[in-house]
Amino acid sequence: MKKILITGGAGFIGSHVVRKFVTKYPNYQIFNLDALTYAGNLENIADIENAPNYTFIKGDIVDGDFINNLFQEHQFDGVIHLAAESHVDRSITDPLSFVKTNVIGTMNLLNAAKTIWKDNSENKRFYHVSTDEVYGSLGAEGLFTETTSYDPNSPYSASKASSDHFVRAYGETYGLPYVITNCSNNYGTYHFPEKLIPLFINNIINNKPLPVYGDGKYTRDWLFVEDHAVAIDLVYHEGKNHHTYNIGGFNEWQNIDLVKLLCKLMDEKLGRTSGTSEQLITYVKDRPGHDLRYAIDASKINKELGWKPSVTFEQGLEKTIDWYLSNEKWLNNVTSGDYQKYYNEQYN
Ligand code: NAD
Ligand code: DAU
Prior knowledge:
CATH topology: Rossmann fold
Number of domains: 1
Largest sheet: 7 strands, parallel
Distance between the termini: 52 Å
Strand content: 15-25%
Bound molecules: nicotinamide-adenine-dinucleotide, 2'deoxy-thymidine-5'-diphospho-alpha-D-glucose
CATH architecture: 3-Layer(aba) Sandwich
């Protein structure tokens, strides 16, 4: 039985990846390692917690001794590494915790994998899940390809870029079998409401202002999270060793247009008069170092592995909105307590 360690599996994307692997591969033993920070939530994976091929482990990837012992005990065949501090705004106020988790945490996993696979790395794989933000910002034209130079602008993207470099270096120097994917903005169910789409859905429900940074003309390429999980499954099993794959939605939106679409869909769902939610739009101070535009060229994964997104943005947004509207308890649980403090510090 293959033993696979998934890190960050109680978070947004990780929970979808854990669900996919646990349900699709009953012959794999899936270990989900997560520190359960503010972003980690066992409710995200409550539906599979009793599966016979699933084990949850609470632990911090920054603790090197703990990670080494865990790898010695279980002798994992593969690692899919998603655990990270993931929110750009938080990286601006607290960059060091991003270095600890995203850089040191990744190093600890790399060292532990290198040690247990030193005599035999055949059929082993270290999969590092990364972001398109490492490439920096595009102007009005062009797309990020796998050979675009790294040019990170935020402490978050600098920490992810650093971890990508270490993964690659361990491949070159120690022969560690790895793959890296750099993905664009995800959206979907179980998304913590600090990020644009779930934050704005929650604020529209509660008739709160929608804080659009700067002029709202910033552009992101949006991908439904379940399509990302499909891509991760494919790359884990069929991606070429020591390769990077870009993953994107072929779906660019300026923030302000996306927010207006969200307002329109929410008015329909909530039975509000058309135009009601748009009145909540409030332009606020810009994010420092705000990247103008991200857009992914996902032709490599499309050509080599046959992957492409399966849902349109409208379909994905509708599924997402419906989920938030019928999961009020989840939303209330994650927005109580510390969330209020974060919200006040960030937006007031
Ligand atoms: P998230 O913030 O929702 O979840 C992160 C998870 O990691 C949480 O469950 C948290 O408890 C856990 N974690 C944090 N620090 C930890 C530590 N020190 N030890 C163990 N666990 C820890 O993040 P996400 O949005 O699901 O992103 C997952 C990964 O995908 C990240 O590596 C991120 O950089 C990458 N990524 C995210 C996006 C996106 O749009 N969200 C896009 C591309 C890539
Ligand atoms: O591109 C991939 C990245 O996408 C991931 O690596 C990150 O983990 C993920 O958080 C996301 O980063 P962004 O900074 O692009 O996502 P966020 O949802 O924070 O912001 C999306 C855009 O919306 C961005 O231009 C900033 C803007 N924004 C965001 C918030 C939270 C606002 O205008 N107002 C807001 O309140």
